[in-house]
Write a structure and sequence with these properties.
mainly alpha, Four Helix Bundle (Hemerythrin (Met), subunit A), 6 helices
Length: 141
């Protein structure tokens, strides 16, 4: 499959995933972020939000950014950090450090952590979600 088709496919996946993330983001806005104070239903809302945050960030960083960079430079090689930095240079993203933090949060929530760590992660994800949601406008233009 050529790069343009891949980018279009990934764009469509991201746009659909953003709709789901937006729904979950709205649900967690009024919830406490400390897991010890959450009901089972509220915790399920947080878990849905975290999964959708991870999905949007995964598709964008692991698939879209890589394809975008390689479209312009098929010989480009490097780590995820290298690809994210290159995406910033190419104007695809505004701040590579924020995107690397998004990736780190996604990775952290895939493992077991204390409730205190989890609460901080939930809050940070809420803070960074508008960056993910803003992809909708960027990818449509």
């Amino acid at each position: 499959m050529d790069t343009e088709k891949l980018l279009k496919e990934y764009r469509n996946q991201i746009l659909k995933a953003i709709e789901h993330l937006s729904y979950s983001y709205a649900k967690v806005q009024t919830l406490d972020s400390n897991p010890s104070y959450l009901t089972t239903q509220e915790l399920e809302s947080w878990e849905g939000f975290v999964a959708r945050f991870a999905r949007v960030s995964d598709i964008f960083l692991s698939k879209y950014v890589r394809s975008f960079v390689l479209r312009g430079d098929p010989a480009f090689r490097g780590s995820l950090r290298d690809f994210v930095n290159q995406a910033e240079k190419l104007g695809l993203i505004d701040n590579s450090e924020q995107w690397l933090e998004i990736r780190e949060l996604r990775n952290m929530t895939a493992h077991e952590y204390s409730e205190k760590d989890l609460a901080r992660s939930f809050e940070r994800m809420k803070t960074l979600t508008p960056i993910l949601l803003s992809l909708k406008v960027k990818l449509k233009s």
